[in-house]
Amino acid sequence: MGTPGPLPCTPAGILEMLAAYGVPVEGRHAVIIGRGLTIGRPLAMLLSLKRPGCNAAVTVVHTGVPDLGVYVRTGDIVIAAAGRAVS
Predict the structure, then answer these.
(1) What is the C-alpha to C-alpha distance for residues 13 and 74, in angstroms, rounded to an integer?
(2) pTM (predicted TM-score)
(3) For residues 33 and 14, is the Cβ–Cβ distance under 8 A?
(4) Any residues with CB less than 8 A from the CB of 32 and at least 6 apart, and which?
(5) In angstroms, rounded to a whole number, what is the distance separating the alpha carbons of residues 36 and 83?
(6) Cβ atoms within 10 A of the Cβ of 39, count?
(7) pLDDT, tens digit only, all 87 positions of the chain
(8) What is the C-alpha separation between 56 and 65, in angstroms, rounded?
(9) Is the CA virtual torsion 28, 17, 42, 83 positive or negative?
(10) Is the Cβ–Cβ distance between 8 and 38 less than 8 Å?
């Protein structure tokens, strides 16, 4: 929502890591592999916020996409956030 408040831990950590390594995010195309509620979706929302260290065009794809490589090759930044549940 763009208002001050707590951020989800792992997506916030990913933003911190991008900043620490000097990865330019603003105006870039970020591809997130994984649409989960804990990492993929919150990270997509954070990366698209109009604020320093964010403001990216974001594409979210999942592992069920037939040719995942087509999306990965278009991204300036690729973040893998897909996994599988352990039972």
Answers:
(1) 24
(2) 0.89
(3) no
(4) 40, 43, 44, 47, 58, 59, 60, 61, 79, 81
(5) 9
(6) 22
(7) 667 888 899 999 999 999 999 999 999 999 999 999 999 999 999 999 998 999 999 999 998 899 999 999 999 999 999 877 666
(8) 22
(9) positive
(10) yes
Cβ neighbourhood burial of 22 (10 Å; 0-12, 13-18, 19+): exposed
DSSP characters for 10-66?
HHHHHHHHHHHTT---TT-EEEEE---TTTHHHHHHHHHSSSTT---EEEEE-TT-T
27 vs 49: CA distance, rounded Å: 11
